């Protein structure tokens, strides 16, 4: 299964969870991080072509993803997406994610 299909399945599940389902949310986050950590180049391509709503949900794990990938290219990609979708208010999340890169 390709990255897009995997992410689509995970995000469909994540969007259905309510705020009280801490275990389900954490499980979804872990799955997102696992899939997006497999290949940095594929992940950046995926994020660059991601729709706004999906990007919003993925932004929940920017810090963990940055820590996993240790990639300046990822941060650059996220900064461009932040400019593209300023109403998602991801700047602070990206700043924190950047701090996780050694």
Description:
The chain is an all-alpha fold. The protein has one domain. It is built from 7 helices and no strands.
N-to-C order of helices and strands: HHHHHHH
Number of strands: 0
Q: Which geometry do the CA atoms define?
A: globular
Radius of gyration: 13 Å
Ranges where pLDDT stays below 50 over 5 or more residues in a row are: none
Specify the helix fraction band: over 70%
Percentage beta strand: under 5%
Characterize the biggest β-sheet: none
Overall structural domain count: 1
- Classification by helices and strands: mainly alpha
Summarize it:
This protein has 102 residues and is an all-alpha fold.
Essential attributes:
mainly alpha, 74% helix, 102 residues, single chain, 7 helices
SSE order and pairing:
Elements: H1 3-16, H2 22-36, H3 40-48, H4 52-58, H5 62-69, H6 72-84, H7 91-99
Helix pairs in contact: 1-2, 3-6, 5-7, 6-7
């Amino acid at each position: 299964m390709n990255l897009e299909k995997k992410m689509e399945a995970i995000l469909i599940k994540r969007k259905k969870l309510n705020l009280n389902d801490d275990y389900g949310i954490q499980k979804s986050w872990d799955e997102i991080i696992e899939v997006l950590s497999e290949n940095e180049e594929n992940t950046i391509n995926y994020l660059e072509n991601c729709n706004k709503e999906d990007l919003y949900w993925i932004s929940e794990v920017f810090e963990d993803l940055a820590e996993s990938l240790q990639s300046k290219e990822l941060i650059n990609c996220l900064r461009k997406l932040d400019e593209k979708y300023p109403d998602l208010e991801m700047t602070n999340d990206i700043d924190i994610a950047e701090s996780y890169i050694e």
